[in-house]
């Protein structure tokens, strides 16, 4: 099942994509008495709606230095536990929404990642039961203002408006993580490409570690780290994060102006 959030004529909703030979359809998504997702009436064709970020997280937890290729590329020590940091919900945007580059930033970076979307309250979960709390997976771009890392903490570098593109949908049944390939493209050029088997800490281990201290609720998101090849993007670029079996998340890059966006508004 592919779950979307959409906007059509100013109305937002949740839906599920239904393949059709004449064009994929979006059906309304509700829940039955057990809380299970159920598909309802057809809303529109997929190409008639604007896709928003597929979830609206209260908490976004990220893992740094979690790919062997990136650790080796950067010459960092091998981690003995997941390195955690947070992104703020105001940073979330959806497919085709512009990543807005603050004019003060000298180096704005893309970081393509596999994102885990929580489906059931997760607190102190065991690794072997972690997937019971997962709704599905989506693509993410952990946009980073590289020179703002010098602040000494990463709130500004990681959480500026538009710094967390998510989408295009939540895939509830992705292929086995060992066969997932994550590719980031800058225009038509592949700048990152790695199999998820390169992750030092897998999804189950990450969720068990995070939820020892941080309770995750439905709709919350965990970003699992970026492979080697992190690099700069500038206004006028178009960056796309693709994950086999999940989807493709494209976003243009634009120069931010003071009136472009108010925090938390219009997550698209």
From TrEMBL:
Q: Where is the Rv2993c-like N-terminal domain?
A: 1-54
Residue stretches making up the Fumarylacetoacetase-like C-terminal domain = 59-253
Top-level taxon in the UniProt lineage: Bacteria
Coiled-coil spans in chain: none
Keywords, alphabetical: Hydrolase, Metal-binding
One Pfam entry for this protein is Rv2993c-like_N
Give the signal peptide as a residue range, or say none if absent: none
Report the transmembrane regions from the record: none
Q: Name one GO molecular function term.
A: hydrolase activity
Regarding protein family, the annotation reads:
Belongs to the FAH family.
- The molecule here is called Fumarylacetoacetate hydrolase family protein
- Look up and give the organism this protein is from: Pseudonocardia alaniniphila
